[in-house]
Design a protein that fits this description.
By secondary structure, the protein is mainly α. The protein is built from 5 helices and no strands.
Length: 127
């Protein structure tokens, strides 16, 4: 007695859509007016649903850009402008004061900044 055995393999792929997925596909195929009518119908049929009056559900604070915390000082442009009103020699001397320089070097730098400023002023007067 001879046995004839045969081995076969078969691939079968099936996709089942959930009812919610089928509804989503239908909505993609609908026009805007059809979607609006369906929404109205659903709102009428289901008393638990209510129409939101706010067309923008994102809170306003989400749009605000702030890099400050509550304890930061408030930025005042007038105070900033007053701080910038210093002359060039005054500004350079303020910058020199922040450096750790020997007194002789600081005095020389302050003298050069004043000298340079007077040269600039005389040059602008000539023009």
């Amino acid at each position: 007695m001879t046995r004839n055995t045969k081995l076969t393999q078969q691939h079968l792929l099936r996709q089942r859509l959930l009812p919610q997925q089928m509804r989503f596909v239908r909505m993609l195929e609908q026009t805007e007016t059809e979607i609006e009518e369906e929404i109205k119908r659903e709102l009428d049929e289901n008393p638990a649903l209510e129409r939101g009056d706010d067309p923008d559900p994102v809170p306003a604070y989400r749009y605000a850009m702030s890099n400050r915390s509550a304890d930061d000082d408030t930025f005042e442009p007038t105070a900033y402008a007053e701080a910038r009103a210093a002359t060039l020699p005054e500004h350079l001397c303020q910058q020199l004061a922040e450096l750790d320089l020997p007194e002789r070097v600081r005095t020389l730098a302050e003298f050069r900044s004043e000298e340079h400023t007077s040269e600039l002023q005389s040059h602008t007067n000539l023009v």
